[in-house]
Specification:
3-stranded antiparallel β-sheet
Length: 434
């Protein structure tokens, strides 16, 4: 049984006669009867009617009081509270008075605290409150409002709304310098959401934010992955300027990454891209790093500096993501030295330290320091005879390894002798028949 007649009569009493409190008192009696009878639809209907009367009468203080009163009544039904919150949430955006809007948001957030059945509404209210704080320049308060809201488990939000919410959390954490929390928040984004291409705008925003974090922590290989993902995004590929910029940054940060099997594999993959031919400098960089030949900073430094300078093609992008031209030049110098060191290790068994420093175009002290670090990291094997000033790249063999090599050599020799003898007998037989 509904309560339409009672609701309509009291609405007329409130709006026409101006007796708002009398109408509310009458409906509170009806609400009590329905609640104690366990009438879910009826209780919800009456509760929503009470808050609507307050809103229609423009009694915002009374509205806040009755929202709290109804939610705290003994054995109040969940559906009734949910109906009140959902209805009152609609009025937040329409309220032009900031003080009244904040009061309503505070009331609704207090009512929804700890209640799972209205957690979606609470999350949306928190986002609205955070935007108000941010608009007033209170970024720290905005971050505090959002940081404890867990939207990834909410079933009432679609993937777009969830992703947008998390991106707001990440952005505010970055804006306040809380990089660790920003990364924790960023990892909540399900990257599978981006696979169908329907969220390309959010994908671009996500990788822009993630790039700022990795720029701060100087994780070059993660930066490569981020720029590669941006380059593979359809929205970016449709814009030639943005696509070229993303490809250039992909190349730069891959070359700045520490040497590894994955890094080498990615360099050879990049080398096969047809688009790379449109950017000769970057194609040359990839070619130099994938060829076992020595080269120096002078071969590329001037052109690269022109690219990453504040007024260069990549200067604006680096400034946007928080990158540093100084970090790029220093790290590129280090990677060139390491590449040349690995090349020397492939072609030399022994070399004078002075000669190695000359080939690397660095001082002997820097060459020795970098060689020591590469040996410590396991990148190459080497031993330095400091009194003699000689570096040995040939790893001594264990007796068993040496015997195995000899055995293998003897086996290869015997196979060669047997094959030769077979060919001789074959030629002899053919000659005799002829």
């Amino acid at each position: 049984m509904g309560f339409e007649k009672e609701i309509e009569a009291n609405r007329d009493l409130a709006l026409r006669a101006g007796q708002v409190q009398d109408a509310i008192d009458a409906l509170l009696t009806v609400e009590r009867t329905a609640r104690l009878a366990g009438d879910i639809p009826g209780t919800t209907e009456v509760c929503v009617a009470i808050v609507k009367i307050c809103h229609d009468a423009n009694q915002w203080t009374l509205l806040n009081e009755n929202i709290q009163l109804l939610s705290k009544r003994r054995a109040q039904l969940k559906q009734a509270i949910q109906g009140i919150v959902q209805e009152a949430t609609k009025w937040v955006d329409e309220q032009p008075d900031k003080a009244k809007k904040l009061e309503l948001i505070t009331t609704l957030r207090t009512v929804t605290e700890g209640k799972l059945y209205v957690e979606v509404e609470r999350a949306r209210l928190s986002l609205t409150l955070a935007r108000i704080h941010e608009a007033e320049g209170q970024v720290e308060e905005a971050r505090n409002v959002l940081q404890d809201t867990q939207v990834e488990t909410l079933g009432g939000m679609d993937k777009r709304e969830k992703t947008e919410f998390v991106l707001q959390q990440v952005r505010l954490c970055l804006a306040t310098g809380d990089y660790m929390r920003a990364w924790i928040m960023a990892k909540k984004v399900n990257l599978k959401f981006f696979e169908d291409g329907s969220l390309d705008d959010l994908k671009v925003r996500y990788y822009h934010l993630v790039t700022q974090y990795h720029m701060h922590s100087k994780e070059t290989f993660e930066l490569f992955r981020a720029f590669q993902s941006l380059h593979d995004t359809k929205a970016i590929r449709d814009e030639p300027a943005l696509s070229g910029e993303a490809l250039k940054l992909t190349v730069v940060y891959l070359l700045l990454s520490a040497h590894s099997n994955e890094q080498v594999d990615q360099m050879h993959r990049l080398k096969q891209l047809k688009e790379l031919a449109e950017h000769p400098l970057y194609a040359r960089l990839v070619e130099l790093f994938t060829t076992d030949e020595i080269f120096t900073d002078a071969d590329v430094s001037d052109a690269l500096l022109a690219e990453i300078a504040p007024g260069g093609p990549l200067g604006k992008a680096l400034a946007q993501f928080g990158g540093s031209a100084e970090h790029i030049t220093q790290t590129m110098h280090l990677r060139v030295v390491q590449h040349n060191m690995r090349t020397l290790a492939k072609f030399y068994k022994r070399i004078k330290m002075a000669r190695m420093a000359t080939l690397l175009t660095v001082s002997e002290a820097e060459a020795e320091r970098e060689l020591s670090e590469m040996v410590s990291s396991g990148a190459i094997w080497a031993r330095i005879d400091r009194p003699a000033g000689v570096v040995s790249f040939q790893k001594p063999q264990q007796p068993n390894e040496l015997l195995n090599d000899w055995s293998g050599n003897i086996s290869s020799l015997l196979n060669l002798v047997e094959s030769t003898c077979h060919q001789i007998r074959k030629e002899t037989m053919v000659h005799n028949v002829a």
